[in-house]
Amino acid sequence: MKKVHNTDKAPKAIGPYVQAVEANGFIFTSGQLGLNPETGTLQEGIEAQAHQVMKNLQSVLENAGSDFSKVVKTTILLSDIADFATVNEIYGSYFGGEFPARSAYQVATLPLGGLIEIELIALA
Description:
This protein is α+β, with helices and mostly antiparallel strands and 124 residues long. Helices cover 23% and strands 27% of the residues.
């Protein structure tokens, strides 16, 4: 059985998907961009977008009854791998020392011209 999770505290989906699905004790989030959930616009620059992505993911996790301490895997997509060090520092600050497994890739382009997108899997 699966349960869908959506919250107004994170941006609405820009396509035919939901913010997260819970199944078999895990929460699978859709990728989050650096969109401000109130305005629907991208934050300016990689630092602001990275923080916004993490805040959006935090809101989705909280809505599903989870948090960053229960994250087991993340995938980071970057429009420029040169931003890796900056993103790494910001990303790490949200986990409090208990880091999940992770992959990071440079991609050709992200939706809406985003600079970063992160998806994750967490324990419910």
